[in-house]
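User: Predict the complex with phosphoenolpyruvate.
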Amino acid sequence: MDIIVLQRNATAKDLRHIVKKLEKRGFKANISKGTERTVIGVIGDTSKITEDESNAFGAMQGVENIHRITQPFRLASRDFKPSDTLIRVGKTVIGGKKIQVMAGPCAVENMQTLMNIGREVKKAGASFIRGGAFKPRTSPYSFQGLGEEGMKILAEVREKTGLPVVTEIMDPRDIDVILKYSDVIQIGARNMQNFRLLQEVGEYDKPVLLKRGLSATIKELLMAAEYIMSRGNNKVILCERGIRTFETTTRNTLDLSAVPVLKKLSHLPVIVDPSHGVGIWDLVAPMAKAAIAAGADGLMIEVHTNPEEALSDGEQSLKPANFKTLMKELRLVAKAVGRTI
Ligand code: PEP
Ligand code: MN
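Assistant: Here is the predicted structure with phosphoenolpyruvate placed in the model:
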């Protein structure tokens, strides 16, 4: 809260009361009396004012509205840290000139399938293998993932291909197994506001890929990142993966404007998951290209050697040959925006 606009009919007493409250809180008030109304500029470290406090000021007698110039997310904001954050995973850097592509099946199904997919995506130029062992399925009767067994498979594929592993955590009780076998911990869309989980992953020095919630605003996404960072873990990668809208032809509506908005508001790397964004495999490539053109630092793409038989999200998974073609096309788009892939 940095500027307080008073109502036209606010009295001198209202103004005094507000100024007193600000001063009591350690701030100075810069009062500007216009012909129409009075505006108070709040001087001091206003980032310390909580949302609740700010709302309480907004409810005071004589106040029309309040504007916050400093963002409620502090550690994640570009005001706080103007330079881009680079996140290192082994030899790979996320957030630099090179665009990083995380590819693999929705779920880890068995060793052979994941190994084949891993080898294919590596050949095509992906820099991470993705795959869920703990799956957040809408139905309790759908395949829920292989659990620790799946984590071991991921680690084995990393061993053979050299690709670091991105995988989802659903429950703080799984943290040890997730830390043991993964290189980047994914927080899925459904858990973006699972605050206990965010705090848990904030305790470790392990990169976190934070997906935007199904109906989360950009501010809420950044506040979720703040939860992780406020616990000491600054290695947060933001991921736009589509939001719920009235549109039904695509699984979600991929909000690509979130990319430049996030890059402006935050120093954290931003990646895009067009697979969950559109939910239909032949729409993935155009949106992946658009994401890179919009300034994304990376992509998460679902790939399966046999999408028809996939245990989850087969309809949105690319076959290896299509993924390879897409990677070639992405090189041209990356070049056009001064990046490499
Ligand atoms: C996934 O990456 O497989 C996944 C479940 O993603 P989201 O949380 O974005 O739905
Ligand atoms: Mn999926």
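The domain at 87-336 is CATH 3.20.20.70 (TIM Barrel).
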